[in-house]
Amino acid sequence: MNAYQIPLGDLTELDRIALDKLAGRQDDMLARTISWSKINTGSWNADGLNAFAPMLAKAFAETDAVVELIPTALIEKVDAKGEMQGFQSGPMFRAVARPDAPNQIVMTGHYDTVFPKGTFTEVTDLGEGRWNGPGLTDMKGGICVMLEALKAFEAGPLKDQVGYTVVLSPDEETGNHASNDMIMAAAREAHIGLTFEPCMEDGSFSGARKGSAVWDIIFQGRSAHAGREPEKGRSALMAAADFALRIEALTDQREGTTFNIGSIDGGDAVNVVPALCVVRIGARAPDGASADWAQAQVDAALSEVLKRDGISAHTHGGFYRPPKPRNAAQNRLFDDVAKTAKALGLTLQFKDTGGVCEGNNVFAAGTPNIDTLGVRGGRIHSAEEFLIAESLSERAGLATLILHRIAEGRIDVKAIKSLMKT
Ligand SMILES: [Zn+2]
User: 27 C-alpha to center of ligand 1: Å?
Assistant: First the structure.
């Protein structure tokens, strides 16, 4: 029986050799993940990001890939005064191997964390194989899983069948504003995407993901003394409040689409009509039509508010993570990966979520993907973030088996990608 006839859920001899090797890598994987966690790479800590990126480059030099650190464009933020501020993030990490191989994969992840410098630094052994530390699970452990899977795969005889581009971003937790173009460019060239965000605490994977939008809207009116000549004033704050109420009224108008007024900054002394107000709103939408609807509703609410005398507005933002609904391509890939996981005795479930990640962007580039191939753990984005250590070698095993099956043609990535068009 050749590889093509072996069910996806059965191990081959090559699988066994790789899994044995990975089991022996467990302690090294944990040590590396812990050492990476100890370096603060909060999304706004440029020094930390710049110090960490070369460590990634050194680690990935153990693969066949050509590694580059590419400077990113400034990230523009609207501050509370409505002014644009630029932030220079760390570099984009890119590693490319065998770009002419018949099967091409984009592998993505991020090396930033949500923890600002100095807020959460200790790595603690919680016992029973659990470790607490910043970014252990989201997602330095996931980067480690990706790296070990590539090394295990490249140690075998099938590597010429699969080429890959790894992109690791410095700004995923703030929306990939500096790295999205590079992620999209790499994703377009690939048949499928593998992203190493943590899976859910119970080991299940993300299925469909909603899309996510953020808008910063800067309202401008006219300042005046509120006691002496209030009639000359045009309150930007009242315009913002009007807008916020219109947005709030949209919730529940379309199933699965939600809005949130995140903040309103404006006003100062009570005897001054406020001339400036910045409103930040977020939205989530389950599919492309809902995202278009949400954008249209925001535009319509704004144009109503702009009928107020003396009020103008600037809008920044939109759907920075387009929805990633289930479709034929996603379902086929989920199915093949679930069958592959069976070979490891894992029963994978795919659960739909309102959470978003780079997998949304890879999908928007036209490339089907699985985005929770990283470690098991929980409480991410909190000081209780923990990693279940055994999942390092376990998930590296799963990713290696996926690579084997792609190389053997048992997971037909070209056929899966072609389903995106159906
Ligand atoms: Zn993450």
Answer: 23
